[in-house]
């Protein structure tokens, strides 16, 4: 298995580098995929800050934008990733947890984290 690490805005997969526009907040390895959550500073309009890359450095997807009818008008960048019992999710500032399909990045469910 390849060695994966990150520093600032770069993911290192063995000797390969994958660069992002923003610094990285967190990465999570899920089998042959690497989830990359970018750190978005207050005031920045960037949303949908979760990406998935392969172990050979290819961009697989960016998380689907949440529909306003589903999440409301106020949207925030995500600040946490979780993968428990094959359920993958991200959490935003309001404590809304959005479940996503690890193969496509599509949103498949939502609940509230207390």
Word description of this protein:
This protein has one domain (4-112): Beta Barrel (Thrombin, subunit H). The protein is 4% helix and 51% strand. With 114 residues, the protein is mainly beta. The protein has a four-stranded antiparallel beta sheet, with no helix packed on it. Strands 8-9-10-11 form a four-stranded antiparallel beta sheet, with no helix packed on it. The N and C termini lie far apart (36 Å). It has one helix at residues 68-71; strands spanning 4-7, 10-13, 16-19, 24-30, 33-38, 50-54, 59-62, 78-84, 87-92, 96-100, 107-112. A hairpin with a 2-residue loop joins strand 2 (10-13) and strand 3 (16-19). The chain contains one helix and eleven strands, in the order E-E-E-E-E-E-E-H-E-E-E-E.
How much β-strand is present in the residues? Answer: over 45%
Task: Give the low-pLDDT segments.
Answer: none
Largest sheet: 4 strands, antiparallel
Radius of gyration (CA) equals: 14 Å
**How many domains in all?**
1
Helices and strands, in N-to-C order?
EEEEEEEHEEEE
Q: What count of helical segments does DSSP give?
A: 1
Alpha-beta classification: mainly beta
CATH fold-level assignment: Thrombin, subunit H
Total strands: 11
Strand order of the largest sheet: 4-5-6-7
Distance between the termini: 36 Å
Indicate the CATH class: Mainly Beta
Residue share in helix: under 10%
> Which whole number gives the mean pLDDT?
94
CATH architecture: Beta Barrel
- What general outline do the C-alpha atoms trace? globular
